[in-house]
Amino acid sequence: MAKVESHGKRSILVDAHVHLHHPATALDDLRQAAASFAAFGIGKAPAVILLAERAGFDVFQLLEAQLAATAEPESLWFHHGDQHLLVIAGRQIITEEGLEVLGLATRTQIADGLPAARVIELLQEADAITVLPWAVGKWLGRRGKIIDRLLAQATPGSLFLGDNGGRPGWWPVPQFSLGIPVLAGSDPLPLPGSARTIGSYGSRIGFSLLEETPAASLKRALRDPTTRITTYGRQAPVLRFISDQARLRIGRKSMEQPA
Fold it and tell me: Domain spanning 10-256 has what CATH number?
């Protein structure tokens, strides 16, 4: 196993919302991600991918036979030349209300369709990093009020907000100004070529990443109110945002057409 330096606090790039939509090309996607992280000048410092796998996906399990194990069941090391990429398991759950909840740094699987409050409760019982990720149109109206209620009920450090690279910068999110930590990620869409965005948008977090227990060290840092979290990378240009949304809707309509 390649040696990863684990002493001392350093600034580490973390893409906190990653989907690997095509298991057969997962290793290629990780190589592309390593190149994206390297573009931000991290040198030999490790970078982190937090998976948010949807129902029916468990790419992390497939990667176990191909990547370097740690002392934890939820983390793996991907070594690409001098670069070290940490891959941490996690899930995306669709709630009864049609919201998304992320359970990061966990292998606990929770079925879709439960009330959001119950999903959050189960993830916190599993010691997951629990995130309410922003999504187009889902934080408005009735569902926006549910988000506000969940945030008002949360204890400090128990719940995070999630931003993503697909949100155009001109789209304001009032909840991001509440003082609740925001974790950013690329959130690649199920579209051709979207894996190229992995690593291009995320959070820069200052902490000590331990080689054998990296997920545990990340959890400790995120739950420490003194940990500094900033955002790196660029969000979607307006034209890309419009194009991506149109392609998504065209794809959904084609899937709904009778064979």
Answer: 3.20.20.140
